[in-house]
Design a protein that fits this description.
The protein has one helix at residues 48-58, and strands spanning 21-27, 30-35. By secondary structure, it is of the alpha+beta class. It has one domain (1-61). Strands 1-2 form a two-stranded antiparallel sheet. The longest helix is centred in the C-terminal third of the chain and has 11 residues, at 48-58. The two termini are 17 Å apart. The structure holds zinc ion (ZN).
Amino acid sequence: MSNPEGETTLLPCPFCGSTHVRAIEIDIAMWAVVCNPCQTIGPAASEKADATALWNRRAPG
Ligand SMILES: [Zn+2]
């Protein structure tokens, strides 16, 4: 499923279970998914889609 912005749906945070997670550009050409409540930072990647995929792969379920 994709939203109007074409972003992949992110799985909930594996640590706190929050769905308040989002992919941000943490550095130049360096993306990672960050959880707002617990500040967990997911695996970084050079592309937003890759960072999203890595996050979803790590998240349980
Ligand atoms: Zn969290």
